[in-house]
Amino acid sequence: MQIGSFELWPAARCLRQHGKPIAITGRAFDVLAVLAARHPDMARKSELMTAVWPGLVVEENNLQVQISLLRKILGREAIATVPGFGYCLNLAVTTCGDATGACRTAAGGGLHGRAADLAELSELVREHPLVTLSGGSGIGKSALARHLPEPPSATLARVDLADCTDTTGLLRALAGALDARGTGQPDRAALLRHLGRRPGLLVLDNADRVARLLVPVVEELLAHGAVHVLVTTQVRLHLRQEQVYRLTPLAVPPPGTSLAEALQYGALDLLAARARGHDHRFALTVPVLADAIELCRQLDGLPLALELAAARIPALGMAGLLQRMDERLTVLATGHEGVPARQRSLYDAIAWSYALLAPDEQALWCETARLQTPFSLEDLIAVGGARDIGRTLDLLGTLVERGLLRFDTGPVPCYTLEASHRQFARGILKTVVGA
Ligand SMILES: Nc1ncnc2c1ncn2[C@@H]1O[C@H](COP(=O)(O)OP(=O)(O)OP(=O)(O)O)[C@@H](O)[C@H]1O
Ligand SMILES: [Mg+2]
């Protein structure tokens, strides 16, 4: 949709002006989408509140906060108040496609808390021929890649590589992107030439297990000069042209945040939306807010963990879930077969990342579970965990890159082993080392 000089991309939940992404919160985006869909009519306050906070009891001033955010972005006169009733857009609106898409996305299985990531990533994939979207298991790499907008006048193809383990499987999957899936061995050179010459974006999703095999394939694709490639993977390709986008967890509100403000944070927004998906009566109210924020904090804003936790709320309640955080690796699980095996529990997700590590990376990571967290390099040296400093820094770098350790710069740079990872690593130490 064209709104004045702005472009609104509902499915991608992205707002642009003169081609540049504009930072906008998820709620403000949803309000704008409803206003645009109603244009030139007024959108009633009740309609806006239901569309933007589905199932939640929120006060009217939350809507006013979003309207004033929008006025800052679009201009003071861009939204007229119809006193006592609602709001109306004062900008020209041209619609291409489905004007209500954004509202439906917000209420359904849409992307939460990633507007800024989506805008930045869209920019990167336009500028760089090869972008790697990296981050730990279940952090939302594939979800973000799925919401990238279709490049204007270019093709977009997505290939899921999760089940590929060898080059033959990889080439078959790529042939599928061209609808050229044959029964025999694909002609590698012809296939890569064809794909490489297509202007557009090729998304190679879930490439963890074939990242190394992908290196020569991607080099060959890029040599043809047209296609841009986005790879989602925990394991980097380490190619010269590679631009890495490190996805971080969803933002978690600090304790004591008000309900209206807390819902601006992706982690809480996702937890509330998924909890409502499991029971339409669920409402995030002030009495459960503190527990909900604590749950998001304990789960480190990890989308997969939040989704699994939301599914347990009908059986345990928010407070009951919090009491079971020591057993989170198994409590946060689902029996649904439609979910990939690596995402059926928090344990499975961490085990997948662990299995991708080399033996010395695994050993060092488990050792860090013996230290108090956060810890510094000096702490690691003091317990004899860093005999070869150069190699240790390499290993730590990989663990940070894979989302298995967090590195914070500051007066004393330090590493944090998150609680879920700590539980897993301690379990390994117990079974393998007997420690
Ligand atoms: N921002 C988000 N909003 C809503 N749902 C999300 C978001 N991020 C992730 N999810 C959901 O969380 C789950 C895990 O996300 P996703 O599969 O994208 O993670 P991933 O990083 O690709 O994991 P893996 O490393 O296992 O491939 C999925 O069900 C996904 O739909
Ligand atoms: Mg994925």
Number of domains: 4
Spatial sequence of strands, sheet with the most strands: 4-3-2-1-8
Indicate the radius of gyration in whole angstroms: 23 Å
Strand content: 5-15%
The CATH superfamily of the largest domain appears as: P-loop containing nucleotide triphosphate hydrolases
DNA-binding region: 1-91
Protein name: Winged helix-turn-helix domain-containing protein
Domain OmpR/PhoB-type: 1-91
Organism: Pseudoduganella chitinolytica
Tag the structure with descriptive keywords.
Sig_transdc_resp-reg_C-effctor; single chain; 5-stranded parallel β-sheet; AAA_22; WH-like_DNA-bd_sf; 435 residues; Arc Repressor Mutant, subunit A; binds magnesium ion; globular; alpha/beta
What does this structure look like?
This protein is of the alpha/beta class and 435 residues long. The chain has helices at residues 26-38, 45-52, 60-74, 101-107, 115-127, 141-146, 167-177, 188-196, 211-223, 259-262, 266-278, 286-298, 303-323, 328-331, 346-355, 359-368, 377-382, 389-401, 419-433; strands at residues 2-3, 6-9, 14-17, 20-21, 43-44, 79-82, 86-89, 93-94, 130-134, 155-160, 200-205, 227-232, 242-246, 406-408, 414-416. A 5-stranded antiparallel sheet has the order 4-3-2-1-8. Strands 10-11-12-9-13 form a 5-stranded parallel sheet, with helices on both faces. The chain has a 3-stranded antiparallel sheet with strand order 5-7-6. A hairpin with a 3-residue loop joins strand 6 (79-82) and strand 7. Helix 16 (359-368) crosses helix 18 and helix 16 packs across helix 19 (419-433). It starts with a strand and ends with a helix. Adenosine-5'-triphosphate binds next to helix 6 and helix 13. It holds the Pfam family Trans_reg_C.
